[in-house]
Queue: 2 jobs
Job 1
Amino acid sequence: MMNDVADSTDVAGTVALVTGGSRGIGAAIARKLASHGAAVALTYVQAAEQAKEVVAQIEAGGGRAIAIQADLTLPDAAVQAVEQTVRDLGGLDILVNNAGFLTYGPLDEVTETELDRVLAVDVRSVFLASQAAARHMREGGRVISIGSCFNGHVPAENFVLQAMAKSALVGLTKGLARELGSRGITATVVDPGPIDTDMNPEDGDSADFQRSLTALGRYGAAEDIANAVAYLAGPGGRYITGTALAVDGGYTV
């Protein structure tokens, strides 16, 4: 699998699972991987119609896709999503841990319930999905987690929970790289900067501030993150592991 680097993003014949793939960055990743030849499973919590639309778009382009309802705050949901992907699509080669919350607010206002929810989805489900996926992956497998520019730079107050949760992915990824490297499986993180999605629109209340923190002075698009994931998932990423790739417009410069 993935021995020819002539096309750095060719993932034909592989199976991918994208968590949180019904909208925004996750949907862009699912469509991108499918356009490069992967069969794709994507998870959603409540956005069933949006998930069905992404599946329909992939199928209209000649690809193969399924949508899986998975509430990743539940301990067994990530594992069940992996197992359903393997069962319905015939294996698993690429795991993209994309699901997560965009959380901000003063430290004193973070509740225990909010803390538990963020850690359950942004950290615990990533670990459990990666653990389950590794049992099925062959040589050339990929574990790619979507982090945050807060992994390298926290520019203001109110982001302590987000920074903590996303930074945990860096340590997890380094551990996975060592654990799985002998099997030819890579593990990486993609750290987006400000990306125009419904969760963080480029015309939102804090958009001007976020733009001012980037070297390019603008928001990125979900497609920018999808392109980076496609590269890491394909032959181009075969010698990249245990590291984070910033796709942030110079946010952390």
Job 2
Amino acid sequence: MTIVSPAQQFLPSTPADIDEIFRLYRLAAAYQAATPRATVVWPDFERGLVEQELAEGRQWKLMVGDAIACMWAYTFDDPQIWGARNADPAIYIHRIATNPDFRGQGFVAAIVQWAKEYAKQQHKQYVRLDTIGENLGLIAHYTACGFTYLGLSALTDTVGLPAHYHDATVSLFELPVAG
């Protein structure tokens, strides 16, 4: 879809990527566990969740050469996290995981640019994301990428959400697509 540089490109993930997706999730969870300020460590995600996202074309990857440098999922509907704001036309980004071999290369900012372009194509007004708890490092990182920090929100209905959302408070972030 969008070319970042001749060696970098955004592509939809495929079922052939599923083992690498779960490897990156495990590495991200290990990184979270080793980070003293981390407010959450990702659980083992349900394979069926990722298989559904793959089937619906909602899992994406940023390729650098032949390697998946970063991957994420998106949805256009996130009512359990966003409540009444879910009525706004938005794209919601979830589970950004960067390959440790590619950390520190600004891929979250690249994903944000991809999401803004994709949202425009889909006639959405916002790019949104969340993180569990009040993770000051991620708050600073996401606001540096252009997001407005909307504050903390306690989740009340987490049935069907991944385990790390249960009994959680989330930090919410929003970026207008126009402009």
